[in-house]
Write the structure tokens for this entry.
Amino acid sequence: MNDLYRKLVDLYADDQLTEEMVAELTAAAKDDDILKSEMSTLKQTVDLLKTDSGPEFNESDYLRIIFRMQTAGADISFEERESHPGQYQLPM
């Protein structure tokens, strides 16, 4: 039965288990130090990731990523924006 509990730890950490399953898993963790440790550390990790706002991404980061992709051989093309939208460009 311990294998089943170990498979449920990720659901426990994300608060997706029913109250009965949480109670059963917690009771099983009282006798199993490894299970208790896995539950604690994964729960802390998930809670931390949920509260994290994520990385900041600005234009210099975007340009750095594009440059690395191009140097790695990626064929990246950009569409030119119209400088004057709605104005017809006469051929020269």
